[in-house]
Amino acid sequence: MADDVLILIPARMASTRLPGKPLADIAGLPMIVHVLRRAEEARIGTVAVATDSEAVATAVEKAGGRAVMTRADHVSGSDRIFEALQQIDPQGRAGIVVNVQGDLPTLAPGDLKAALAPLADPAVDIATLAAEITKAGERDNPNVVKLVGSQVWPGRLRALYFTRAIAPTGDGPLYHHIGLYAYRRDALARFVKLPPSPLELRERLEQLRALEAGMRIDATIVSSVPLGVDTPEDLETARAVLGGR
């Protein structure tokens, strides 16, 4: 485990499509605890949950994890983890901050570890993950965000754009962006101070703010996409998958 890596999991109860989802029961544990376990199993750094809910904090602490209380008025997970970072590490020891969404209970620990690889390149500000789309229905699904990028070398792309549309056109693979981010600490500090950008607002994709500001995002290509739990149907799928672990 690295002393300079901090993994933060933002979690809030006020989901519009699945209220209270961090505490939704999956195979006998709250969903947020499953995500906490996956992050701990990656063994890449200290893990904490950043939340505005006492109930979430209690569930995390009961499971042996660390929870940090944050303000309730944050508009994004990146804002929430930045506040938590100031509380956990005011001395600035952590040089890399990983934002793991709290609704990814099937995240593979090895993929989380792989997300850090592009940060070995000092030119990269933010690292993330992507997987090649293999299901035809995902190509034109606006809920499947596509990463358009140029190959740095096999298994790694430099992000040029993110979109809900089918892109790029023509022959060749399409890549499903996985919403997990490993920031250099100074890149996160810069990012949260930026105003929402025009393309971010148009596509409803926060990561476009970084690209429009000239920040570099590289992605490690992995073979699986974790289930994002946003709806009751997703929750039932997660229960079926994790119930057999």
Describe the structure.
The chain has two domains: 1-104, Spore Coat Polysaccharide Biosynthesis Protein SpsA, Chain A (Alpha-Beta Complex); 108-225, Spore Coat Polysaccharide Biosynthesis Protein SpsA, Chain A, CATH 3.90.550.10. Strand 4, helix 2 and strand 5 form a beta-alpha-beta unit. The protein is built from nine helices and eleven strands. It is 31% helix and 26% strand. It has 245 residues and is an alpha/beta fold.
CATH homologous superfamily grouping of the largest domain: Spore Coat Polysaccharide Biosynthesis Protein SpsA, Chain A
- Count of extended strands: 11
**CATH fold group of the largest domain:** Spore Coat Polysaccharide Biosynthesis Protein SpsA, Chain A
Report the sheet with the most strands, covering strand number, pairing sense and barrel closure: 9 strands, mixed
Rounded to an integer in angstroms, the radius of gyration calculated over CA atoms is 17 Å
Can you write the helix and strand succession as a string?
A: EEEHEHEHEHEHEEEHHHEH
Structural class of the helices, strands and pairings? alpha/beta
CATH architecture of the largest domain: Alpha-Beta Complex
Count of folded domains: 2
- The geometry reads as globular
How are strands sequenced across the largest beta sheet? Answer: 5-4-1-6-10-7-11-9-8
- Helicity range: 25-40%
Global mean pLDDT: 95
The end-to-end span amounts to: 25 Å
Strand fraction:
25-35%
